[in-house]
Amino acid sequence: MFKTGFDPVEPAVMYEAADITVAESPEGALSVVTYNIKYGGARITFFWECGERYNMTTDEVMVNMEGLAEIVRTIDPDILMLQEVDVESNRSAYVDQVQFLLDNTELNYGAYASQWKSDYIPTDGLGRTDSGIATLAKWRLVDAERVALPLQVDQSSLVRYFYLKRAILRAQVEVPGLDNFWSVNTHLEAFSDDGTKPTQIGLLVDELMSLEASGATFVAGGDFNSLPPGSEVLKEFVDECTDGFAGKGDNYEGEEDFLDGLFDNFSSAMPVDDYAADNAAWFSFSGDGLEWTRTLDYLFTNTSWVESSGIVYQDVEQGGVETIQWSDHAPIYGELELEVGQ
Amino acid sequence: MNISTMAFNAAVLFAGTLASTITEASPFDASTAGLLGEGEYSVGVFAPLTYGISDDLQISSHPISAFWNGNFALKKGWESNGDWSYATRHGFSYPTRLLSAFARDGTGGILAPDVVIPHIVAMDSRGLMTRDLGDSTSVTLGMRVSLAMSFGESSWDTIDMPLVYSRTASLHNGASVNLSTTFVGDFTDSISWLSSTEAWYLPGSLGAWSLEQRLAAAWESEGGFSSQLGTIVVVGEYDYGINWHILPKFDLGWRF
User: Fold this and answer.
1) Local confidence band at A246 (pLDDT 50, 70, 90 cut-offs)
2) Of A88, A173, A192, B119, which residue has the fewest beta carbons closer than 10 angstroms?
3) How many other CB atoms are found less than 10 A from the CB of residue B118?
């Protein structure tokens, strides 16, 4: 009745910028960003993060989206993978954030896969919700599909009916001179204690293995809601919110090896040794907007990164742009090495 | 997130009380110019408690939501003119408490708890004209105008839910208009049917129109108990755009 379900595999929703900007062929490297934009909520503290706000006004959303667009314009990636992007949600005043970013950056084409869709969610004033993941690129995206991930099993059937439904968004990017190149974008489960998160990570690894076996090259990114190996702090973060969405704080104890399948098989824009040497330089999440406290966002590829190109755009000192006021996540950047002749 | 089975129940109750308070969807003759006889009562789970003061005047109020949504309506039958019979219905309500009850966090939070609901006085007037089409079928043409006045600070979202959006639009924007055509007939002495088409015009709303098609069948015992089951197809414009829904329609009623 509230239209909350998805097929196991279904076509992504395709977008185009209002004005297409002619994109030149990449020379030597392809720049990629993954960015969880918190549905344009910037640093408004919502009820699910121990705040008092619920739904935003149109003016608030537009100001925040312009702030995010300015960051994207500054970084100017060739491919942008977004998480927590709303396209038709009451909480974000029904602003189509995919279209906004296409129309206000140099990116031309987009593919969107919903992760949370309901004609009406009768709780916390949420109302109509359509929020998910999107991949934006300067070049056309084709064969874009939403691949459903398994749902949490420790919820009642009614909660599951209205709850988030995680997915992988895969799309072939028609980068000039680069054949069979794919983007894989996802936002994995945050609060499950029932094994859903490692199962979803395992399916992501399978998806990437399958692409590699088919001869494809890819970049995979997103908010994996897991800490990297070598993390010094696993719980009791300084920005802990225990009265929020899940009713508990973040605790990653026992999850230290969740991402091994990704780090073991693919190349990370964040070298794991560099992370071990300095966790804080790679932090990409901040609960309270005062400081970055943990790493939840990643970029992987089955080709190689330009050496030292990986960076988390944290602030002026690291990346050249202040980002902490525009989302609870920072953009993660990397440059894929393009071999001569590609 | 704190969602439970109460969330669904709350949504259905909310839609049901608002819708049925205004539409008198059950029993079917409440959708026509027909009235209860003097001294008769009728009541339904979703339909209002109705009392026939005289053969041409009845009063009604929804008992479940009366505490939160103070409401009453008068329905007056007028002299027939040829084949047509006429009635007007005038309803008044104070929906502020009901809306405030649903502005809450967690389960049943149809509105966010940080909204500001003003004092709202709402009036709903409709004219109904019915004529028989043969022995067991009738047609009713209806026109309904809903008006509302708000007092004090107001900051609350539209409720972008089928049936509810159209019925709360006047509470936001002051007015709405509804035109309807209803056919009622009998399959047998105890089983009747209804087919009703309603068109809403919602001036001032981002979603300016809504169409509703009801199909239902009802069984009524000799003792006055009735049950009805059917469906409502809603196609309409909301704040976000056009959408459609197929909803169940059911009620239990008693006439005594």
Assistant:
1) low
2) B119
3) 16
Strands (DSSP E) contained in B133-208 are: 137-151, 175-186, 191-201
pLDDT band at B73 (very low <50, low <70, confident <90, very high): very high
Is A153 a residue whose pLDDT tops 90? Answer: no
Scanning chain B, the segments in alpha helix (DSSP H) are 5-23, 96-101, 164-173
CB atoms within 10 A of CB B71: 22
CA distance B55 to B5: 43
Q: Domain tally for chain B?
A: 1
Is residue B217 within 8 Å of B184, Cβ to Cβ?
no
Q: Which of A119, A123, A162 sits opposite B106 (nearest CB)?
A: A123
**In this structure, what token pair is assigned to residue B100?**
């405030």
For residues A276 and A227, is the Cβ–Cβ distance under 8 A? no
In angstroms, the CA A162 to CA A94 distance is 19
Give the residue-averaged pLDDT of A200-217: 96
Is A125 near chain B, with CB under 8 Å?
Answer: yes
Q: Which residues contact A77 (CB under 8 A, 6 or more apart)?
A: A31, A32, A33, A107, A333
Which among A52, A119, A156 has CB closest to B243?
A119
For B188-200, the pLDDT digits (tens) are: 989 999 999 999 9
Residue in chain A lying closest to B245 (CA)? A1
For the segment A78-95, what is each residue's pLDDT rounded down to a tens digit?
A: 999 999 999 999 999 999
Q: Which residues of B touch A48 (CB under 8 A)?
A: 1
The pLDDT value recorded for residue A243 is 67
Torsion A154-A156-A161-A163 (CA) sign: negative
- Element (DSSP H or E) covering residue B238: strand B225-238
Residues 6+ apart with CB under 8 A from A44: A51, A53, A56, A60
Cα B191-B129-B61 angle, rounded to 5 deg: 70
Cβ–Cβ < 8 Å for A175, A217: no
Write down the residue that tokens 């950047």 correspond to.
A333
A125/B112 Cβ within 8 A: yes
Torsion on CA atoms A51, A57, A60, A66, rounded to nearest 10:
130
> How far away is chain A from the Cα of B57, in angstroms, using its nearest Cα?
38
Q: Cα separation of B226 and B211, whole Å? A: 27
CA distance B92 to B73: 6
Residue for token digits 């029993």?
B27
Quickly name the fold that domain A9-337 has. Deoxyribonuclease I; Chain A (3.60.10)
Q: How is chain A split into domains, by residue range?
A: 9-337
CATH code for position B223: 2.40.160.40
A282-286, A311-315, B62-66, B227-231, range with the lowest pLDDT: B62-66
Contact between A313 and A325 under an 8 Å Cβ cutoff? The reply is no
User: What's the domain range around B160?
Assistant: 5-255
Q: How buried is A107 (Cβ within 10 angstroms: 0-12 exposed, 13-18 middle, 19+ buried)? A: buried
